[in-house]
């Protein structure tokens, strides 16, 4: 699985992609992450020449990211093979709700995912006319940019890629799991009060444990 990220702020991904499971997945070549900054698809060398935002037609606060730099960035991510086995995701609060089912289906159908991260007042809507995009939302709220949603998708979708988690049983959504988990020691004490692990988890009876987990879930 290769993620192609269209963003003005590629370094925003550094800390998350360089830690833990995703870092190992990248090192083991289970996933790839590539960045395309729309500024790199403008003419000129000065900051002024490389600006990609302008005032919105019709008035309003804030700035809008221009269409052509984003279109060129997506085209670069597409490569010579075009849209084959590629999905373009456009983040918007009004889009289709992202969930684990969507992540599973995406892994089955696509090898390349292009994530378009907006900023400011958004991206010129003509980009959506130049390419077939799927509008996705991670929740009924507004963020300052698409970078956080992109990280969430990378995390969730990558978990479905074979070998990323190491043990396929680590997929909580594919087994009987519970939001409450416990580990050693069996009893802890805090401010004079003792807190114990539920007895059923110490029983060794997996049937009873599964029933308990289902009730907790």
Portion in helices: 25-40%
The main sheet comes to: 5 strands, parallel
The CATH class of the largest domain turns out to be: Alpha Beta
CATH architecture of the largest domain: 3-Layer(aba) Sandwich
The average pLDDT is 90
Helical run tally: 7
* Record field, number of beta strands: 9
Strand order across the largest sheet: 2-1-6-5-7
The string of secondary-structure elements, in order, is EHHEEEHEHEHEHEEH
How far do the termini sit from each other? 31 Å
Radius of gyration over C-alpha positions, nearest whole angstrom: 22 Å
The computed structural class is alpha/beta
CATH homologous superfamily assignment of the largest domain = SPOUT methyltransferase, trefoil knot domain
Low confidence ranges: none
**Fold-level CATH name of the largest domain:** Alpha/beta knot
Gross morphology is elongated
What is the number of domains?
Answer: 2
